[in-house]
Amino acid sequence: TGPATVSPTGQPTGASQSDIAQGGAYLTDAQGTRLHDTDHSLKAGPRGPVLLQDHHLREKITHFDHERIPERVVHARGAAAHGVFRGYGSAAQICKAAFLGKDVETPVFVRFSTVLGSRGSADTVRDTRGFATKFYTSEGVFDLVGNNIPVFFIQDAIKFPDVIHAGKPHPDREIPQAQSAHDTFWDFVTLHTEATHHTLWNMSDRGIPRSYRMMEGFGVHTFRLVDAEGGTTLVKFHWKPKLGVHSQVWEEAQITGGVDPDFHRRDLADAIEAGAFPQWELGVQTFPDNPEQTFEGIDLLDPTKIVPEELAPVQPVGLLTLNANPSNYFAETEQVAFHTGHLVPGIDVTNDPLLQGRMFSYLDTQLTRLGGPNFAQLPINRTHAPVNDMLRDGMHQTAVHRGVAPYRPNSLDGGCPFLAGAGDGAYVEVPAEVAAGRKVREAPASFDDHFTQPRLFWLSMTPVEREHIVAAYTFELGKCYEQAIKERALKVLARIDTELCEQVATGLGLPAPAAGEPLADPSPSPALSQVGQTWPPD
Ligand code: HEM
């Protein structure tokens, strides 16, 4: 790579990082002993059997055997870049986070990804794209772990394993949905109709972006910002690309996918290397923090809903510039660990049940993926703020901790760490009211409307965009083997728009159902009263 290369810590590549593994003029083993030969095993005579004694052979092969770590369970294929975020200061009224201050510059690392494909899959497939940003702020790491589509398939994280199982390659043949049978994906999204909105965005041109540099990004959930006086505002985060939003047409995506499956990662790296640094403005839609957490009748805790920009314009708060390619894919792009719980003072989560589940999932999966609890010490994950935690030992511990009393308070270590208040930069969760109620497995009634916003999206499309959407549904549903799934999908489309439904039905050679035909759910969740539990008990 050219001059734009930096080390995982965000510093220009100099001696320090590469010296760990590649210092000195001589080839050595892992202990630093110089080697005279790395091409021949130690044998009993030139044609003889290989000796067990050959430690260099065993070290070399053993290390190689363990080179791979598990790929991410989702978003396995990605490409990333370093950059800088500069705050405009325009958010200072509503958010005390230091990195949003005027002209404050914060190093960032951004990883773009597809969701469903494996690490070696093609970039250009129809899918959602991840847009995850790690801000190394002076107050700790803030991760904005978003997508290029502003809504999500499900309203509750408990369904995440289900939607991903339905979308991943078939368990029997391991053939990806994107290339073969599509029954499980369409089965899921037509039985869980809250997926209709996200699916429609996927079937639109947004599902096949031209470039990572030309995608919007969305935090999806509603977050809660806190100002210096403790006042709160609900927001949705948006990334707006300076290059505009562009897509491929389907035929183009097929050709680029065949000719260059690395199309998007190459495009990103080449642009940065050429000095054409991609930029995005970060913006927020703001909503008063009312007890209902609704805005213009839209439930802000429902991640399948947007708030139209006509109702709440996106207000720019800072500029992101990606200006350096990673110097090592594994050390940076593969080992980076994002988490919705990496928050800094001034930014808090809401009760969106999808976000609440994500707060658990990321750390849990990274314990396996990155081999134990110490991955925050990896250079790419290291905060740029001072760390003085009480976390000790564990697999892959590389810190040598001092002191004898890793607990607080203690009277032994001659200066036990201070605790801070909000005024000294402590992260204090907003003591938001928790609605009283019964402990139940239920969604609120405000989560029930699955079709109004998909209809708005469809009606906002130009004629050519509609043509693309019809073609996408026709093509993708045409890959289903099960007639019943195609018929159910048409009933869902009829609830979005009659014309959309009729055109796809024609493409599939099936009759269009009448609007409002019931969607048969083979196994609806029973109401609480039906499962034999009442409160207070009888
Ligand atoms: C990974 C976004 C919902 C579990 C990711 C990544 C992104 C992302 C961008 C890739 C991060 C990277 O580049 O390393 C989203 C968005 C969601 C969502 C925008 C909804 C609005 C969920 C839910 C769960 C989940 C509900 C589970 C309950 C995971 C896991 C990974 C992941 C396990 C892999 C993380 C790793 O191995 O480091 N997600 N996700 N996601 N997501 Fe989500």
TrEMBL record:
UniProt domain Catalase core: residue ranges: 28-416
Residue(s) of cross-link: 3'-histidyl-3-tyrosine (His-Tyr): H339-Y362
Residues noted as binding heme in the record, renumbered to the chain: R72, R111, F160, R358, Y362, R369
Example GO molecular function: catalase activity
Keyword match rRNA-binding: no
Catalytic activity reported: 2 H2O2 = O2 + 2 H2O
EC number(s) recorded for this UniProt protein: 1.11.1.6
Catalytic residues in the record: H75, N147
One example of a Gene Ontology biological process annotation: response to oxidative stress
Bias-annotated ranges (Polar residues): 2-19
Coiled-coil annotated residue ranges, if any: none
Protein origin, superkingdom: Bacteria
Gene Ontology CC: one annotated term: cytosol
Broad enzyme group: oxidoreductase
Cofactor: heme
Keywords assigned: Heme, Hydrogen peroxide, Iron, Metal-binding, Oxidoreductase, Peroxidase
Keyword Metal-binding: yes
Function: Decomposes hydrogen peroxide into water and oxygen; serves to protect cells from the toxic effects of hydrogen peroxide.
Record family assignment: Belongs to the catalase family. HPII subfamily.
Protein name stated in the entry: Catalase
